[in-house]
Design a protein that fits this description.
Layout: E1 6-12, H1 16-28, E2 33-40, H2 46-53, E3 58-62, H3 67-75, E4 83-87, E5 91-93, H4 99-107, E6 111-120, E7 123-127, E8 135-137, E9 143-145, E10 148-149, E11 152-153, E12 163-166, E13 173-177, H5 178-183, H6 196-206, E14 210-221, H7 232-249, H8 252-275, H9 279-300, H10 317-322
Parallel strand pairs: 1-2, 1-4, 2-3, 6-14
Antiparallel strand pairs: 4-13, 5-14, 6-7, 6-13, 8-9, 10-11, 12-14
Length: 331
């Protein structure tokens, strides 16, 4: 199995239908890789589907539903290829999608993390929300992408057909060197799911590794197939994990003022949900803050030096988007 340099690892939980739909493209176009499905103790027929329809795929069976973060951490202890491709179960890959990734890793040793171009499976002329053409954050930790600012999605007109340094790569299709993944102890288990990839990229950035986007590799993502945007749990995880990420990675002199500002901004977001009649999402923000306070001491102990000061590209994407109508990435 380990004659190949890259491992494509798909995390699955009760996703038999997604595996039937999307594994065929992965197995057809991943000759350079060994393909694994890491199963989070599914109770549907996922394992039977893999064994019967995809015999070339190696199954890693976790003994519980550990979510995205711990699910990968547990499974990847058994994966020894040099490069990891962590791929959502609702991703359709394209022919030769791995070749540009391998070329970058092999030619540029300081690149630790890579993201391909991620387009919308349901509307293939447009970028997909989760990652688009590479991610950045603003001073307050709000994530945004080339091709997606908040809920505004751009049409792919070739405007991001390039290879550039980015701050974070999407967990929907996330490439990382095994050596760096293990050096950083992988994803933070406390995140469970959502924004754990941004936290991991930030920790890699603090150590001097770079993340890169390449348009030469293209995948299509359904998005929301496992946890829809309308689900308050997604709101809870995003707001809580964003605060956890800031507490772990902000430079010392920015730690208190930025987190205080975020708490205020989160309160405004909660009020906005109330005006929209989305009371469960407002309550999700309240719960997210309580969980953050419970975890704050544990989280602060995870802080490691150095803390890079140049982590953000925009001072406030909220200001640019809502007050300056900044719906397109500012090159």
């Amino acid at each position: 199995m380990r004659d190949k340099k890259i491992a494509v690892v798909i995390l699955n939980w009760n996703g038999a239908k997604l595996l039937e739909q999307f594994l065929p493209s992965v197995t057809a176009y991943s000759a350079e890789a060994n393909v694994y499905v890491a199963d989070n103790a599914s109770t549907d027929n996922s394992i039977a589907v893999i064994k019967e329809q995809f015999p070339s795929v190696t199954i890693i069976q976790n003994d519980g539903n550990y979510g995205f973060a711990k699910g990968y951490n547990v499974a990847l202890q058994q994966v020894e290829e040099e490069y990891y491709a962590l791929v959502n179960s609702d991703i359709e890959v394209t022919e030769d999608w791995l070749a540009p990734i391998l070329s970058l890793f092999d030619s540029e040793p300081n690149i630790g993390i890579i993201q391909p171009k991620i387009l919308d499976y349901k509307n293939k002329e447009y970028f997909e929300y989760a990652g688009a053409a590479g991610g950045f954050i603003d001073q307050f930790g709000y994530p945004y992408c080339r091709g997606r600012i908040f809920d505004h999605i751009e049409k792919d007109k070739g405007q991001y057909d390039d290879e550039i340094g980015i701050f974070w790569a999407s967990g929907a299709c996330f490439f990382i060197r095994k050596e760096i993944y293990r050096k950083l102890s992988g994803f933070d288990d406390d995140f469970f799911a959502h924004q754990e990839e941004i936290d991991l990229c930030w920790r890699a950035f603090n150590l001097g590794y770079t993340a890169k986007y390449t348009s030469k590799s293209v995948v299509y993502h359904v998005g929301g197939a496992t946890l829809n945007e309308s689900n308050p749990k997604k709101t809870f995880l995003n707001f809580r994990n964003s605060l956890l990420m800031l507490a772990k990675n902000l430079p010392e002199n920015k730690l208190f003022p930025i987190i205080l500002a975020r708490i205020v901004l989160d309160g405004l977001a909660g009020i906005q949900f109330i005006f929209k009649g989305k009371f469960t999402h407002c309550w999700a923000i309240v719960k997210a803050h309580f969980h953050f306070y419970i975890l704050i001491n544990k989280t602060l102990k995870k802080r490691k030096s150095p803390q890079a000061y140049n982590y953000y590209r925009s001072k406030s994407i909220v200001y640019k988007y809502f007050l300056k109508n900044g719906t397109v990435f500012d090159l």
